[in-house]
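Please fill in the sequence for the structure shown.

STRUCTURE ENCODING:
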């Protein structure tokens, strides 16, 4: 191929588009592109509204109905422990020594918590906790991180291990 033939190929021009046609094509293309963008936004909003509506529906279904009172049933009043007035931990410990079996563990626990929280006296708290666990052996099984401090939890765990070791050695 010579340079002249190549120049002739490069100079070939396609059909000329008139300005009216090009403007009309541009308007149609712009309209289609904008319509697609609005459709995409509308579907996104529709999907978000659907998710929101489903969330509300699920929350409504999962909401528990309040417990209804059974007609004709008699309620049994459980005895509530007497409130412990504002006593010092030492006074509570003395009161626990004189209390009956049912109250002894509870009062020792309160005294131990007050020794630990109010005074930072961990030795006295440990003594009260040990007396409480001796008075109520079933309390060892219940570990409550909300109300038990680290010392009481540690004592309960140790008592559980002692019980397991005693059972396995028998």
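FILLED IN BY: designer on duty
SEQUENCE:
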């Amino acid at each position: 191929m010579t340079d002249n033939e190549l120049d002739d190929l490069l100079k070939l021009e396609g059909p000329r588009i008139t300005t009216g046609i090009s403007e009309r094509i541009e308007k149609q293309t712009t309209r289609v592109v904008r319509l697609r963008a609005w459709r995409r936004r509308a579907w996104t909003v529709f999907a978000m509204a659907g998710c929101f509506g489903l969330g509300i529906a699920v929350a409504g279904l999962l909401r528990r109905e309040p417990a209804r009172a059974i007609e004709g049933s008699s309620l049994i009043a459980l005895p509530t422990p007497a409130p412990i007035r504002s006593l010092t931990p030492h006074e509570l410990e003395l009161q626990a020594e004189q209390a009956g079996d049912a109250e002894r563990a509870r009062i020792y626990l309160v005294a131990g918590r007050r020794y630990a929280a109010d005074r930072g006296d961990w030795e006295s708290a440990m003594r009260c906790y040990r007396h409480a666990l001796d008075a109520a052996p079933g309390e060892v099984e219940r570990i409550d991180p909300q109300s038990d401090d680290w010392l009481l939890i540690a004592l309960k765990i140790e008592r559980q291990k002692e019980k397991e070791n005693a059972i396995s050695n028998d």
